[in-house]
Amino acid sequence: MRTSWVEICVSDLPESIEWFAKVLDFKLVDRDTHYAGLRRGETTILLGTDDGPYWSPEKERIPPAGSRGGGVEIVLMVDGVDSLYERALSAAATIVRPLQDQPWGLRQFWVRHPDGYLIRPAQGIRI
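The structure corresponding to this sequence follows.
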């Protein structure tokens, strides 16, 4: 049973599914017209379309595509962050901050989803 997950509102469901697969190696596990479930290891991300019934009550508050997620980052703890970084580079993803070791014990990089969500894949390291 999943105990928690992230759901994000996307402007283009097929594009977002492809982006998460190409850039961050997520696999599609569930899909309908306005919804998709993606998984990578133990991490689940749900995508909902901004024109679907689930997000319709929030429609007027949803920022336009490309400017969503301001002030929030989604941290993904992963194994093999170096190879994931190379994958993101190969996919021509928008890298916001390059791969580097941080003094708080993580090796990480920041990548931006086409709708503007900031995603930080990270791996624990010894400091």
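The longest helix spans residues 13-24.
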